[in-house]
Every structure is written in structure tokens, then in C-alpha cells.
Amino acid sequence: MKTANYLLAPDGTAPDCAPAIQHSHGVHARAHTLARIEAALARMDAGRYGMCVACEQRIDLQRLEADPAEAVCSDCCETAEG
Ligand SMILES: [Zn+2]
Fold first, then answer.
1. Of 8, 36, 71, 78, which has the maximum CB count within 10 A?
2. What tens digit of pLDDT does each residue of 26-61 get?
3. CB 40 within 8 A of CB 49
4. How far is the C-alpha of 22 from the C-alpha of 35, rounded, in Å?
5. What is the per-residue pLDDT for 24?
6. Is 15 inside a domain boundary?
7. Domain annotation covers residue 24
8. Has residue 13 been placed in a domain?
9. What is the pLDDT of residue 79?
């Protein structure tokens, strides 16, 4: 009767044939980025792009260049992220 040795790695242990599914933070980060971009596009439609959603002051151009989906000015960002 044939043994099931083909199920085992050469050292006799079960092969690691089914790596654990990893919950990647990257997926969530991309989804988050997409949501931010969609929000930025919605602000463009509303004619409010580049305005802080918190205090309605203009967001610094440097901030928008660094992150075009930026939703808050530097003051509010500091307040929010503390
Ligand atoms: Zn602000």
C-alpha cells in the first residue's frame, strides 16, 4: 500500500503549501486613499476644492502639491492629528 509521503516535505513535516492569508494594511491604505480622492473630486464639483473642510480657509498650495486630496489646512491638520 502506498504511503502518503508525497504529502510530506523531505524532512517528514507537512509542506507549507497554504500560506496564511495576510490581511494587508496596504489594501486598506489604498481604499482610504481612493476615498480621499473621491472626496476631493466631490469638492471640485462643489467648487470647494482647495478649501479646508474644517475652517474653509484656503489650503496651502504646498500642501495640495504634496497631497492633492488634502482636505484640511495645516492649522486644522495640526489640531486634528495633534
Ligand atoms: Zn482649516
1. 71
2. 888 888 889 999 999 999 999 999 999 999 999 999
3. yes
4. 23
5. 57
6. no
7. no
8. no
9. 81
State whether the Cα torsion 55-57-62-68 is positive or negative.
positive
Question: What is the span of the domain harbouring residue 74?
Answer: 49-82
Q: How far is the CA of 54 from the centre of ligand 1 (A)?
A: 5
Residues 6+ apart with CB under 8 A from 51: 43, 57, 58, 59
Cα of 45 vs centre of ligand 1, distance in Å, is 20
Three cell numbers, residue 67? 497631497
Q: Which residue has the higher pLDDT, 20 or 45?
A: 45
pLDDT tens figures, 66-76 = 999 999 999 99
Distance 5 CA to ligand 1 centre (A): 66
**Amino acid present at 54:** A
If you measure from the C-alpha of residue 64 to the centroid of ligand 1, how many angstroms do you get, rounded to a whole number?
A: 13
Distance in Å, CA 28 to ligand 1 centroid: 26
